[in-house]
Amino acid sequence: MGTQDTLSIIKPDAMKLKYSGKIIDFIENKGFTIIAQKKIVLTKRQAEAFYTVHKERSFFNELVDFMISGPILVQIIEAQNAVSFYREIMGSTNPDEAEEGTIRKLYGTDIQCNAVHGSDSMENANIETSFFFSKLEMIK
Ligand code: ADP
Ligand code: MG
Predict the structure, then answer these.
(1) CA dist 91 to 7, 17, 107, 131, Å?
(2) How far, in Å, is the centroid of ligand 1 from the Cα of 93?
């Protein structure tokens, strides 16, 4: 598959619990390189735009309010097969159902406050990395 980039977000729950350092360490220990990283607070409009694929879902408004509830750490991370490999080490959406040793099992609280986001396809990884980072910030 070769080297890929994917978008990772350390969500407000994990930031508030001061797990960001542990999660960065976890990601790097799995072999990812952090290509770009920034701490930001999303506006409501930005969060709605980012999660637009979920706009018809029952949890959409709740998800947007959660994602704007505090700072997040947005990262572009690189590895072999990064998109599916990151999804694997993140674990299931619901931390209760996530495999032992995954980020969501270790640092997630519930189905909403599940510590991290990771792109779910290469196409979405491209869309999501350029949503947050300019070409200039992505230069390797
Ligand atoms: P994933 O983040 O694993 O790709 P989804 O794309 O299905 O999961 O959902 C996006 C985010 O919306 C989840 O990570 C979680 O924060 C939130 N979410 C998903 N399902 C629910 C739910 N049933 N109730 C509340 N929040 C949810
Ligand atoms: Mg998703």
Answers:
(1) 15, 19, 11, 24
(2) 6
